[in-house]
């Protein structure tokens, strides 16, 4: 009898999955916060013919520090093995970005993504032993952008990329990793997010028009898909995002004479190249980064080669992930220039290593710098960008849409940025603000060196890039900067929510 851990088992999709797996001769380890509901579920399993000794109930707050060890140890102690992990727990919080504080982002990312990653890492050694499966319960909000649930969409997009990347890492171990992406499914998720009965009823009624099959889904329909992916019935399927969505997914201004652009990560690489190009195109620049001397060198370059007046350049040396950074950057820019037309979110870091060797602190660092800091600065700048009917351009990566083993957490951050871009584009469109992103392939910068590659390794990496990019070479920062300028300017006046690949064809050759 295979053993399955099911999180979020006290209700909804998790509950339906537990009942279905128990009927199919699984021993089930049930986790959730509601002790009474878990015990009632265990009773249902027994009353349906299951053996009470084949059911384990572990009530725990999944985001707590001790949760992964508690769940895994209890399961292995009782059953001796783990064959499948069903990550079904999750929460929904609704509201536009400008009205949803960073604490809402933190809660969603912690419960929906970080807790899932921690439990998966803890379970993987046992799942490797059994050549088992991981099934993540994502959402149609992962691949599809929706306004007013931006942070939720980002969390599910990150889960989707985690699924695909981990599938690549685990395949050599005989472990399959997949996800289901439900559309609107009749559960308590929307009620617990704050919808009253009248609002929820109207939401379900509207779902009849937004889903190709003319209705919302049922938890048992999603459970059937989860069972398929968890079992040997899907023995040749891995890295798949299986939509159980009733077809929901397939139905789915002029600047001033001298516009003002904030550019993060401006001290080197793509940020530096963008600053120089914007200077040549008559932008006033607010340059931010950690290295004061490097920022001063970039400013001097913008004067000597870009033709910009030194008075049209502001330098703000700051750690972008610090609490005061967004206010410092935005306030100093407004004080000097009086407006913000474009925000170029170019700052970012790379950390490499497989999931089993990359602790949660690596995940935390990457999510904090690459995603959370970007969200915080964007929120701070948006009121001014709305006033200017301006633009936001996020520097993402080909690692956003494409999974790569060994850089899973980095891929997750870029996937989250991509979904933030698309969702925010929908939210900001009524304000005349356009939001886009560039997704570079391998670009000659220092990002791989600062991630730990020595010169010989980096040189070999660039050489290999000649074979993995359709155009036969890595890219330059200037080429990415040109794409950023296009998206920031009125030249792309009818483009929003786009992820523009500047990757030399890397994405269409993936995986290779």
Automatic annotation (TrEMBL):
GO terms for molecular function: oxidoreductase activity. InterPro entries: NAD(P)-bd_dom_sf, Sc_DH/Rdtase_CS, SDR_fam. Pfam families: adh_short_C2 (PF13561). Keywords: Oxidoreductase. This is Uncharacterized protein. It comes from Caenorhabditis nigoni.
């Amino acid at each position: 009898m295979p053993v399955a851990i099911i999180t979020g088992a006290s209700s909804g999709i998790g509950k339906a999955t537990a009942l279905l797996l128990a009927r199919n001769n699984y021993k089930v380890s049930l986790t959730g916060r509601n002790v009474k509901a878990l015990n009632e579920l265990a009773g249902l399993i027994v009353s349906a013919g299951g053996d009470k000794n084949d059911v384990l109930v572990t009530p725990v707050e999944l985001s707590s520090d001790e949760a992964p060890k508690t769940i895994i140890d209890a399961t292995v102690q009782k059953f001796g093995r783990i064959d499948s992990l069903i990550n079904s727990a999750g929460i929904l919080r609704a509201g536009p970005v400008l009205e949803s504080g960073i604490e809402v982002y933190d809660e969603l990312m912690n419960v929906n993504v970080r807790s899932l990653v921690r439990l998966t890492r803890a379970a993987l050694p046992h799942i490797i032993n059994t050549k088992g499966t991981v099934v993540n319960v994502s959402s149609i909000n992962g691949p599809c952008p929706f306004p007013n649930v931006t942070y939720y969409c980002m969390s599910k997009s990150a889960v989707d990329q985690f699924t695909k990347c981990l599938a690549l890492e685990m395949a050599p171990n005989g472990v399959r990793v997949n996800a289901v992406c439900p559309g609107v499914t009749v559960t308590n998720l929307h009620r617990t997010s704050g919808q009253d009965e009248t609002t929820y009823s109207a939401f379900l009624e509207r779902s009849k028009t937004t889903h190709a099959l003319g209705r919302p889904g049922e938890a048992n329909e999603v459970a059937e898909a989860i069972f398929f992916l968890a079992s040997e019935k899907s023995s040749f399927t891995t890295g798949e995002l299986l939509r159980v969505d009733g077809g929901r997914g397939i139905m789915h201004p002029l600047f001033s004479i001298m516009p003002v652009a904030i550019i993060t990560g401006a001290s080197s690489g793509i940020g530096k190249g963008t600053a120089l190009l914007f200077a040549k195109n008559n932008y006033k620049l607010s340059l931010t980064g950690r290295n004061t001397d490097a920022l001063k060198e970039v400013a001097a370059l913008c004067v000597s080669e870009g033709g910009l007046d030194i008075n049209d350049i502001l330098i703000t040396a700051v750690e972008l992930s610090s609490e005061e950074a967004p206010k410092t950057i935005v306030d100093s820019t407004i004080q000097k220039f009086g407006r913000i037309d474009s925000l170029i979110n170019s700052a970012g870091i790379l950390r490499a290593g497989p999931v089993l060797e990359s602790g949660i602190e690596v995940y935390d660092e990457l999510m904090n710098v690459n995603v959370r800091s970007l969200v915080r600065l964007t929120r701070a700048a948006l009121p001014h960008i709305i006033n200017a009917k301006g633009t936001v351009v996020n520097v993402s990566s080909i690692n956003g849409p494409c999974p790569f083993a060994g850089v899973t957490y980095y891929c997750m951050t870029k996937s989250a940025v991509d979904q933030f871009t698309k969702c925010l584009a929908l939210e900001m469109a009524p304000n005349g603000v356009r939001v886009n992103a560039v997704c570079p392939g391998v670009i000659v910068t220092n990002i791989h060196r600062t991630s730990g590659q020595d010169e010989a390794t980096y040189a070999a990496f660039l050489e290999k890039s000649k074979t993995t990019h359709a155009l036969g070479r890595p890219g330059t920062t200037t080429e990415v900067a040109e794409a950023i300028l296009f998206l920031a300017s009125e030249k792309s006046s009818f483009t929003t929510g786009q992820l523009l690949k500047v990757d030399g064809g890397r994405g269409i050759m993936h995986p290779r």
